[in-house]
Amino acid sequence: MVTESVLRAEGVVKHYGPVKALQGVSFDLRRGEVHALLGHNGAGKSTLVKTLTGSVQLDEGQIFLDGQAVSISSPSEAQSNGIAWVDQELTLIPNLSIEDNIALGGMESTFLAQRKQHRPRVKQLLEQIGLGHLSPTQEVGTLSIGERQLLEITRAFGRNSKIVILDEPTATLSDFEIERVFAAIREVTAEGVSVIYVSHRLEEIIQICDRATIMRDGQVVTTQEISGLDKSALVNLMVGQLPEFAEVQSIAKEGGNGDFSITNLSINNFVQDVTFGAKGGEIFGLAGQLGSGASLILRALAGLEPKSSGRVVLSGKQFRLGSTLRSRKAGVYFVSNDRKGEGLFLTFTNSRNLTATRLPILAKASIISRSVLKKSAETLMQLAGVDKSRRTMTVDSLSGGNQQKIFIGRNLNHPKMKLLLLDEPTRGVDVKGRAEIHQLIREASASGIGVIFSSTELDEIMELSDIIGVMHKGKLVNVEMRGQTNAAKVFNEMVRESEIEGVKA
Description:
By secondary structure, the chain is α/β, with parallel strands linked by helices. The protein has 3 domains: 5-239, Rossmann fold (3-Layer(aba) Sandwich), CATH 3.40.50; 247-331 and 416-505, P-loop containing nucleotide triphosphate hydrolases (Rossmann fold), CATH 3.40.50.300; 345-414, no CATH class. It has helices spanning 45-52, 75-80, 98-103, 115-129, 145-157, 175-190, 202-208, 231-239, 294-301, 324-330, 339-342, 350-355, 359-362, 370-384, 400-409, 431-446, 458-464, 487-494; strands at 5-16, 19-30, 34-38, 60-65, 68-70, 83-86, 163-167, 194-198, 211-216, 219-225, 260-267, 271-278, 283-287, 308-314, 317-319, 332-335, 419-423, 450-455, 467-472, 475-481. The strands form 4 sheets. Strands 6-7-8-3-9-10 form a 6-stranded mixed β-sheet, with helices on both faces. It has a 6-stranded mixed β-sheet with strand order 16-17-18-13-19-20, sandwiched between helices. Strand 1 (5-16) and strand 2 form a beta hairpin. The longest helix is centred in the middle third of the chain and has 16 residues, at 175-190. It starts with a strand and ends in an 11-residue tail after the last helix.
């Protein structure tokens, strides 16, 4: 292992008002290594990354590149110093082509005038990450979420950077796509590029990383070689101990407020004749790889897929698909897998985000008092498990996990809600936050509403579901109670026809 340090941070301090996000953090990155940055949500990982990339200015401390002290005041300055960052939130421009998105901020300014000249390089980059089937001229808006995530990584690797920071790079990827990312990482690190890898998927950390720095409460707990650690040890270092998932038995309520049945649901000529249902108080988990159709089902029920047909009955009443207004009027509430693009108002306060969808409920004679808004926001923050001292902070100052709690919290305790839909509810969330979000969902279902969630993560499906439905290529291939199936069986149904080789359940 090469021990030469390419980046070093010493005594980094960052405060957001009374919140101490970083408290004297020191960190070093060796040339050619993959270095994991771990910690539960709010541990300070995101803030540290933002100081290294110029998105946030540190209050105290110093950053060194190749032994020289530097001041990184902006993302463009970080890039000029050879630092590329792939954020967990997508930053691509949908109506531009793949090659133009790769060029933005990265290649020379003459690129747009010399696309044909640079096209072979773009094709080479796409091949490297497993996107060789795409045309450089194809619009990004036509790509799947997984393909867009791979393109974000491609763009970072294509900038000839010395350091690449990957923040939850595989959160939206299938197992096959993850292997493509790992292959690309191994290729660039063999050439001397250093990678900071931020992820809550500990199996990946053990598989791809050389060292790990664990953070907790804005401080570094330890930095160790991965070779001496297993998943249990990593978890203990991150949160003290693994939060146990409470094995709660669902309380199905016959004829309850959240009973639902879906018959012959078809969407966009892809999802075909899907039929399933559950009683209020039960949690229905839709398992499936990216592109299986699981997410499409949730979006159709929320009224977001106009080309949808089928019979949907909720609490004894049928409603017609194809309209968000009709779905909401029927009592359907939806938490998207894209909290940035389809959920939160990032520059608004947590208070405003939590109360944004319930203003008519809080109003009296079309007037809402500030005290009522404050009380409602504090109640929802408590329900969501976010410290109420953060009420007046903007959402973009929170970690990804706490942002997700705010997003889910907005949909809690709605008097008119009958069915709660959650698409990848713990995407990019650490083990502690994941257990807390699972508890939020369980408590919501205990009130008697119906709950449907989709997830590509097998562990989440097995932990949270009362009933498991498996999607594959637009078809519902099986439905069973959780106690009547097992992880290996569900996995095999998710990846039928041995499409992903060498992956074990």
